[in-house]
Amino acid sequence: MIIEPTVGRVVWYRPSESDLESMRQYEEAQPFVAHVTYVWSNYMVNLVVFDHFGGMFTRTNMPLAQDGEPLPGVPYAQWMPYQIGQAKKHAEEK
Fold this sequence. Notes:
- Helices cover 18% and strands 37% of the residues.
- By secondary structure, it is α+β, with helices and mostly antiparallel strands.
């Protein structure tokens, strides 16, 4: 299922090893929260990302994983399970 990204939407950001280097005390399995700042396509976005300390950084041209499709290598953005569930529920209502 494809969820169309729009500016301002919240996504999870799966960080790269370099993003995590200064945060080893945090669980790597937990994603960072990010906001979409620009949409290139349904599969590519720009982000402002908040790390586990609340620090902010940007990422451009980030792959956006869509539900049911293979995950790209890290780093990448993905929809939260709640968003995927809501999109499926909305699609079933049509």
